[in-house]
Amino acid sequence: MRGRINAGLVAGGVLVGLVVLAAVVSFFWTPHDPTLVDAARKLREPGGGYLLGADKFGRDTFSQLMVGARTTLYVGIVAVGIAAVLGTPLGMAAGMTPRGWLSELIMRVNDLVFAFPALLLAVMLGAVYGAGTLTAMIAIGVATVPAFARVARAATLQVMVTDYVLAARAAGRGRAAIAVRHVLPNIGSVLIVQASVSFAIAILAEAALSFLGFGTRPPTPSWGRMLQESQELLFSTPRLALWPGLAIALAVLGFNLLGDGLRDYLDPKLRRIRAEG
């Protein structure tokens, strides 16, 4: 039985939907070319076809925000995908053999990877392979693997003591069959919630890496690099930092609300505990 759709889930869904809508529309239409440098329109104020004005290079801010949403979602999807594909099987394997050497090895390596933040990993990969979107995606994805592994392991441990799994083991089913048929479908909701929360973290990480020059390279628009380019004009033209900062904040808020709402919706028992507390 699932819980009711709450306000947080709706609000998160709306915010995430707006980001996705902007990204999808940017494939077909933007008010102006987001990469076109026009010195005549440098620091143009909002109005006259420029909804949010232009930056110090004369590029349309609104168009950059739209394409930046596409970049953000692209990095988030790939990074979370890497983390889920690597972390989920590792966590399931550790959870299905809780007292074995394999579980101990997986979790100790997991702790080691967890000690390396995405930023440091991106700097290391950038020094070897060069900074860019691919480097950012790999760094964020690898740094997020431990979160998926831990969540998958904890959920697997709960599933492995259920009657239907015990019956499957008594019937002689192998571990692979149990994992695919019984464990994975029953931990899917937990992984969906973790993916939503990890997406918010990936957005922040991508923006931070682009701000520091280790993320998306020019001329591809990025919210983080828009912030970096606006810092020298922060006091004279604060709107240049306002819009990308607001976009990052709303996107992160949306995915966090979506993850929290999904957690309550998919686990009504947790929702009741919070209400009683």
From TrEMBL:
Membrane-spanning segments: 7-29, 73-97, 109-128, 134-152, 191-214, 240-262
Protein location: Cell membrane
UniProt cross-references to Pfam families, sorted A to Z: BPD_transp_1
GO cellular component entries: plasma membrane
Entry superkingdom: Bacteria
InterPro entries: BP-dependent_transpt_permease, MetI-like, MetI-like_sf
Record membrane topology: Multi-pass membrane protein
GO biological process, one term: transmembrane transport
Alphabetic keyword roster: Cell membrane, Membrane, Transmembrane, Transmembrane helix, Transport
Main location: membrane
Similarity remark: Belongs to the binding-protein-dependent transport system permease family.
Record-given protein name: ABC transporter permease subunit
Biological source species: Nonomuraea phyllanthi
